[in-house]
Amino acid sequence: MSMPEKFVAYIALLAGFSSPLAQAAESGSSAPTEGQTAGVAIALLASLLVVLFIIIGWYWRRWTRSMLQDASSRLRESEERFRKMFMDNSAVMFMIDPTSAVIVDANTAACQYYGYSHAELTSLKVTQINALPPEEVLQEITAVQHGLRNRLFFSHRLKSGELRNVEVDSIPLFSQGRQLLFSIVHDVTERRKAVDELRQTKNLLEAIIQNIPIAIQAKKTDSLSITIWNKACEDLFGIPSSEALGRTDYDLFPKEQADNFRRRDQEAISSDTLTDNPAETVDSYSKGRIVLHTRTLTVHHEDGTPSHLVVLSEDITERKRTEAALIDSERRFRKIFENVQDVFYQTSMDGIILEISPSIEKYSGFSRQELIGRPVEEVYFDVGDRRRFLRAIHEKGQVADFEVRLKDRYNRMVYTSVNAHLLFDEEGRPAGIEGSLRDISARKQAESALLEAKERAEAANRDLERAIDVARQMAMDAAVANAAKSEFLANMSHEIRTPLNGVIGMAGLLLDTELSNEQREYAETLRKSADSLLGIINDILDFSKIEAGKFELESLDFDLRETLDDIVDMLVMKAHKKKLELACLVDPAIPHILIGDPGRLRQILINLVGNSIKFTRQGEVALFATLEHETDEQAYVRFEVKDTGIGIPSDKINLLFQPFTQIDSSNTRRFGGTGLGLCISKRLAELMGGKIGVESEEGKGSLFRVLLPFGKPPSAAEVREEPSEDLAGVRVLGVDDNETNRRVLASMLETFKCRHKEVPDAPTAMEELRSAVRSDDPYKIAVLDMQMPDIDGDTLGRMIKEDPELADTLLVMMTSVGIKSEAAHFKDSGFSALMTKPVKLAHLRKCLAGILAQEQTETPRRLSLFPRPRLAKDSKPGVRILLVEDNIINQKVAQRILERIGYQADTVANGLEAIKALETIAYDLVLMDVQMPEMDGYEATRRIRTVPSTVKNPGVPILAMTAHALKGDREKCLDAGMDDYITKPVNPEELADALARWLGKEHVEVPRSC
Questions:
Q1: What is the distance between the alpha carbons of residues 949 and 941, in angstroms, rounded to a whole number?
Q2: Taking a C-beta distance cutoff of 8 angstroms, is the pair 708, 633 a contact?
Q3: Of the candidates 792, 791, 766, 794, the residue with the CA atom closest to the CA atom of residue 779
């Protein structure tokens, strides 16, 4: 309805309102009263006011509608502009409903960033694109909603699955009657990566500074207070960083030293360059007086002003000491160079002498100054030697023991040995030759003498070969030629042993001189060959005597255990060199003292045990002695020698004891031997009333059995092995991987009445020891083998001592001979004693009783239960020995052996000269050869002993030293009045023992090379 229409309607309404007045007039009413008139006026006025208000309202409503339409238009335009700005903005933006976490809206940049379409992105919740757990994301949204924070850091996942680090700025706002969160997302992945890299770089620099071995400190340039003080500084000055940081040098060091540091720092700041102090002496709380190499540099602000001072200090105290020592060493080397006997030299590649030591004058007569600058060829006796030398050194870069002939000032030839090597320049090209040379003229003379001795030995070998042929022929016809054979053997014994004494003795003396490796090998071969030759001679002579019926047995009281111990001692080194276990077990039931021939028993068993060692590559060789049975007068003892060697084929066993026979001819070449050893052993066993046999399987070893009868002295029952009361009941654990050794040890411990057990390895031993402790019955002693697989005895001993439950266990180590030198090591490891295998019964008893006694008396353990080295005794001046020997070589050999054991001797060539010497000087002892020209040793001895005698001391001890070694020769010497008997070739140990007996001196150990 339009406004005019509304106005007409209003007039009509007004007309209707005034009709009552008209009706009143028409009805004859009197004229309106004043009250009625006023009412009408009021009504009319009210009507007018109403009309007026209606008109005003109509116009107000029209104006208001116009304004609203205008505002709505502007709002739509604003929303369109905001929407366009929101969608087109390059920043990633979206709107989030904080209640549901749904993404309500997102701009184009957000869709592109996350890889979703607008519809896809606005269908997701913000928790679905966030790597954090949903509950944590909702907590962050709530915090923004309540105004607690407006910047968040998340890791958002793109549609591709890639994670990106983002920074989200978010604020709450109202839209369409609800609260939303408006968020702007900034990708900070690269920034975070850069920050992480910066942090890592900072940490790396900090680690480098703290761990670099150079002391680093930094100071502010304005106050010189310390801001960096690394670990090297702490170690160098003895001041922790907690005390140094923020302080100055005056707070840390004495004033004088702080003044020096301040002066150095100010100079560095003013010079604004790196300053270097190569040797600064300072005092350190931890190291005392030290020398530092200090470098100081200035670090600047961006505007170029100095900000910090960095001081780098390196401790060069040891370097300075080393430099001083090097200077001193160079001085001493120069002194040695100028005074040493060997000649040191240096030449250029074209052969010009650049340097040579002054000792050259002693060898050549040329002074050092005369030779420097001259060609080296001028001093060569033969330039061909020079060409050979250059060819050799260019091929290998060095030469050793290269022999060249030089000439001296008088053109005489000098043999020299040269050790030299090439010198190279920086580019690796040969630049010269440096080396040393030694005069070996004396050695060349010795080699010539050795060659002559070798020729004589070869001649003797040829003679021996002929003699062996003759001896074999004689053995085949023994019934016809017994008498001639005896005389022949006597002569052969003397004639062969005499040159052999010279060969063996001179070879030993030669080995005591300075030799090259090749020469030493020749001399060792010569001595071994001579020893083998001597063994062959002894076998042949023994066999010949047995065949001729001239062999006689002795009947002596002897200690069987000592005899077997001696046999083992003789062969233990041979076994250990082949890394074989050598064991010996004696039945306690066997009487200690027996009656028989111990020498021949020793010969049989040495032959059997020696053969077992020879034919065994790995494993063990064991010697057993068992009482087979006994009567009141005799004891029958069975000896068994068991090995793990190559064995014997069953079809060859019958040939084993035949003379001059080997079961395999290749064995003669491979292992040596004449084939007489077992034959002689069989004959000896039969002569002694016993028998010998063998059981063997090829590839699995052999078992030799010897059954021998021995007499029993009346007191035999009183000397049997008695248990050691102080060991009875003592609990002992034995640990050895070898079953035979465990058996031997168990037998010995059983003899002592010990409570014992034997186990094969370290783990079992540890379990047994701990079990014994848990049962409250611990082992008192553990006897450990050194050589065991996996865990050796040394390691097992440390394991026991490191276990608190087992630490009180007393330890005994069993080792081979080669480890005696490590006695101090085993003592430090906690061992109470060290024993050498094979262990002897008496030694084991003494060892166990000794360590128990030491513990009970609470005396400190000493090395007394460990092996001690034997020391040779000094000779006593005043001892006069006369050597009577016609052979010049044997004179030299005897003289040198006597010198080696500390004695001097006068030498004469026959019996007449000996009597004349004894008439002049009262000698303390005479070494008398038997077969000599003019007067032999027998006649000379008889004249010395004849009363009245012309010599000063008729009772002087006379020791026969002869090559006569057949049966009866010893008795013949003793019958002539001699006191003792030594056979040639002379054994230095036997000679030393004889001198000790007759001169009353302690035994002297002789060097092996003799």
A1: 11
A2: no
A3: 766
Residues 518-550 pLDDT 10s: 777 667 667 666 666 666 666 666 666 666 565
Tell me if the pTM is above 0.85.
no
Written as one string, the DSSP assignment of 927-969 is: EE-SS-SSS-HHHHHHHHHSSS-SSS-TT--EEEEES--STTH
Separation of alpha carbons 321 and 316, rounded Å:
9
Handedness of CA 949, 951, 953, 955 (dihedral sign): negative
918-939 per-position pLDDT tens digit:
988 889 999 999 888 889 999 9
How far is 215 from 226, CA to CA, in rounded Å? Answer: 13
* CA 609 to centroid of chain Cα atoms: 36
End-to-end CA distance of the chain: 154
Q: Which amino acid is at 94?
A: F
Write down the residue that tokens 């020791």 correspond to: 959
User: CA–CA distance from 530 to each of 452, 533, 541, 573, 935 (Å)?
Assistant: 15, 5, 16, 20, 30
DSSP for residue 373 = T
**E strand or H helix at 95:** strand 92-96
* CA 420, 426, 429, 431 torsion-angle sign: negative
Q: What is the pLDDT of residue 860?
A: 43
Please list, in sequence order, all residues whose beta carbon lies within 8 angstroms of the beta carbon of residue 180, skipping any fewer than 6 positions away. Answer: 95, 96, 97, 98, 104, 172, 173, 174
For the four alpha carbons of 434, 439, 441 and 443, in that order, the dihedral sign comes to negative
DSSP run (H or E) holding 211: helix 189-211
**For residue 411, how many C-alpha atoms fall within 13 Å in the half-sphere facing its CB?**
0
- Residues 6 or more apart in contact with residue 37 via CB below 8 angstroms: none
Q: Residue 287 and residue 798: Cα distance in Å, rounded?
A: 36
Q: Which amino acid is at 234?
A: E
**Residues recorded for the chain:** 1010
Question: What pairs with residue 186 in β-bridges?
Answer: 167
